[in-house]
Amino acid sequence: MADFDPVTKAVVPAAGLGTRFLPATKATPKEMLPIVDKPAIQYVVEEAVSAGLLDVLMVTGRNKRSIEDHFDVAYELEDALRAKGDEERLNQVKEPVDLATMHYVRQGEPKGLGHAVLCAKQHVGHEPFACLLGDDIIDPRDPLLKRMIEVRATYGGSVVALMEVPREQVSLYGAAAIEATDEDDVVRVTDLVEKPPADEAPSNWAIIGRYVIDPAVFDVLERTPPGRGGEIQLTDALRTLASMGPEEGGPVHGVLFRGRRYDTGNKLEYLQTVVQFAANRDDLAPEFLPWLREFLDKAGQ
Ligand code: G1P
């Protein structure tokens, strides 16, 4: 079996304007919206770390400073909590700082996800890397990224995470044409289309926001013209890689994910995510769930 370079770096695009959550996101990055009491972006960094990726590059932009502050030391707050002897909160404040080595690069212009990934070129260099989109949170009990890294170690090239969605929702995602392999949860990706109309989608298998990408993607992205929405699409660059041989940066495989994924990219699913996380918390569920039941009973009358 070929010996492929290990994956050690994660890239997290976080330059989006968050227009779906205005006015909350006028002065606060959408990545900082809390899921109960932790900003969404911290779950994403924790996921990268639990897959063994301790080097995290965030692709940010204007108005994103609070993300950097969140992963940095907060001296005054720490001193105040230390003086009060509040160890528990002190640990909560320090936790995001100790997670990973954080790096930041700015995406000057909002030219799409492919362009955001291209901004990582210098930091990533010639290694394969993981890319995690902040709108998707994967349940820590269903370790998807680790599996994707294993699949990259077996087949080389790039790996996308695929989830089956109802046909009418496929136009919200990149969709994949797939072929079976000898492994139940792994497919060969033969084509990819960004946000196809439902009747043109190659399948119901949608790309969710987790990727392991071969560094050949950078050259491809530099040559990729704007696609859907007039933006440089990562899906289009991966489509090119899917047609290439191993010497040029291909192939592309998919891991079929059947675990728990939470979408925080729109208001309804964000609310559903917060409720599900609260329902799973030992400190909140005993009071929250009976309240929720009563609330729903009353609302149903
Ligand atoms: C991006 C990708 C799309 C993918 C989706 C997953 O779209 O372009 O291919 O299916 O993330 O969440 P976005 O949701 O950022 O428009």
UniProtKB/TrEMBL annotation:
Under SUPFAM superfamilies, the record lists: Nucleotide-diphospho-sugar transferases
Keywords attached to this Swiss-Prot or TrEMBL record, sorted alphabetically, are: Nucleotidyltransferase, Transferase
Is-annotated flag, keyword Transferase?
Answer: yes
Which CDD domains does the UniProt entry name for this protein? UGPase_prokaryotic
Q: Care to name a GO molecular-function term for this sequence?
A: nucleotidyltransferase activity
Q: What is its EC number?
A: 2.7.7.9
The protein's matches in InterPro entries, at most eight in alphabetical order, are given as:
GalU_uridylyltTrfase_bac/arc, NTP_transferase_dom, Nucleotide-diphossugar_trans
Transferase as a keyword? yes
- Matching Gene3D superfamilies, A to Z? Spore Coat Polysaccharide Biosynthesis Protein SpsA, Chain A
Q: What class of enzyme is it?
A: transferase
The catalysed reaction is: alpha-D-glucose 1-phosphate + UTP + H(+) = UDP-alpha-D-glucose + diphosphate
- Nucleotidyl transferase domain residues are 9-270
Q: Which Pfam family, just one, is annotated for this protein?
A: NTP_transferase
Q: Which PANTHER family match?
A: UTP--GLUCOSE-1-PHOSPHATE URIDYLYLTRANSFERASE (PTHR43197:SF1)
- Which family does the record assign? Belongs to the UDPGP type 2 family.
Quote the protein name from its UniProt record: UTP--glucose-1-phosphate uridylyltransferase
The species is Microbispora siamensis
